[in-house]
Q: What sequence folds into this?
């Protein structure tokens, strides 16, 4: 999956934790993207079996979509926390974690989590 698709999954996941209803306009406003761009992206997520929409246009992640989104979000939060712990300003840490989360290997990410856990910073 491309980075943009992962961003949409993560956004839908985050919004679904704040509200029981996620609409395309919510995604559009959160990400700062146009409604047509969001509609195309949602269509791709649906095609890949990661999201569904109901008759009202409400977006829900499938089980596979939620699992993938949860992993992406975990990477984002763990990496943000690591960078902040290293002394990076919060906004820079969040921005950098957003970029890193899409490219870091599972092996490296797991090592980071183990390291943070051994020093009392992990979950």
A:
């Amino acid at each position: 999956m491309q980075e943009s698709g992962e961003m949409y999954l993560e956004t839908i996941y985050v919004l679904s934790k704040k509200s029981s209803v996620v609409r395309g306009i919510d995604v559009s406003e959160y990400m700062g993207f146009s409604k047509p761009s969001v509609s195309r992206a949602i269509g791709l997520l649906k095609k890949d079996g990661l999201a569904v929409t109901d008759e009202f246009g409400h977006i829900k992640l499938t089980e596979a979509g939620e699992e993938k989104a949860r992993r992406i979000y975990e990477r984002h939060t763990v990496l943000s926390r690591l960078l902040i712990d290293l002394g990076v300003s919060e906004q820079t840490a969040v921005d950098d974690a957003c970029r890193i989360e899409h490219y870091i290997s599972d092996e490296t990410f797991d090592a980071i989590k183990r390291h943070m856990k051994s020093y009392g910073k992990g979950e």
